[in-house]
Amino acid sequence: MISAGRVDDLAVMLVLLALAALFAVLVRTRPQIGLVAYIASIGLVPIWIGVQVGMFVGAATAVGIGVLVALLPGSRIRWTVWDGVLGFALAVVVVSWVGGYASLGDAYATTTGWLVPYLVGRVLVARLGSRAVAVCITLVFLVVAVLVVVEVVTGDNLFVRLAMGNPLYTQWSGIRMRGGLPRAEGAFGHAIPLGASLALVVPFVWSSRLPAWLRTITFVLIGVAAVVTYSRIGMLSTALALVLCVVGLGAWATRAFRAWAAVALVVGAALTTPTAMAVFAEAGDEASGSAEYRADLWSLLPSVGVLGRSTAAYSDASGTGGWGSFRSIDNAVLMTALSYGGFVAGLLVLLGVAALVGFVRGPRTPGLTAVVAILPSLTSVAFITQFSTFFWFVAGVAVAQTAAAGGADPPVEGDVEPARGVADHPRAVGVAP
After folding, report:
1. Residue 367 to residue 82: CA distance in whole angstroms
2. pTM of the prediction?
3. Residue 359, CB half-sphere, CA atoms under 13 Å: how many?
4. Mean pLDDT over all residues of the chain?
5. Partner of 231 for a Cys bridge, out of 45, 195, 219, 390, CB 3.0 to 4.6 A?
6. What span, in angstroms and rounded, lies between the C-alpha atoms of 57 and 49?
7. What's the number of domains the chain is made of?
8. What whole-number distance in Å separates Cα of residue 218 and Cα of residue 241?
């Protein structure tokens, strides 16, 4: 006899499947719905919002799978060596799980946290083009930045009110402090992934087809949002992203807009640096201790094996764990090595070096610029909350744009009508008109 609880679970599952099928049909008909839903699920939905179906399925993962089901067939993606290297790295993780060197959770995390967003980025650029992706990212994160400013002014994070009875809410819903002031977190559960994600947005704002005044306002709000995270990673990465746009994405904006962006960078730095420095000075030992902690993390490197989890990993009676004497690892490169082995981490470092070389040699695209801007920070921020999803999505966009570029960046025709995105380039391959 089936219990009432099992019947309720089955009913909920059927409803979720029906909604998923409806979403896939809508996205198949209008891919723009999938683009907006996916970016919004990253920037405006906390990591703890989701359903437990054996494994926890977060909002971004659910939307991403729906987008892939609807749009991946027939997308005519032009596969590259970059895809092959990442695919090989993920295959190693799966083989490690099969061989007992990694857990099912590790394999699930790489599949949903790396592969799904990466493929979504590849597919959406192929179906909609670079312009549409850039505009959507710009507008969604304009809302994110506005909500961050509201959070700072009111002292109230609206997303924390979206309580759910799961461990992720317990882990990420608290507001952290620095220098006696609350750090802005938005929907990202922590100031650091919010700041790093804002940095990823900058090249897309730069290259979007939106009017110059709206892009300028967005830059200002993103800069303010990055500062009030009181995260050195977020502030420096956002500034670096804008610098790389000025020097590397010239064909994506007019000379006048580039000049205004440079002025905004200098003026913004002059206005915000004193506030940031005052907060860090007030934080005192906290801020310096944070830097020392990140340096001490490298002491775990000798415990890294070729495949699978580090020998320093442990789990206590409460179900939580850590690595050696550390409860958390704010370092994406090291965390990857500790979780999946030095071989997988080495492949990702190889991809990072290739991205840097690609940026230097050209053609330079918004996605590639965003990845290069955040590379230095990957030793100070882990793949946590939505930053992981957004990073791998942007990586997919970068590969799609690079594969479609076919040569030098296109010329700029005007400020409101900037250069065509590489996915809209006449020599682009595998892109829907």
Report:
1. 14
2. 0.88
3. 22
4. 83
5. 195
6. 9
7. 1
8. 14
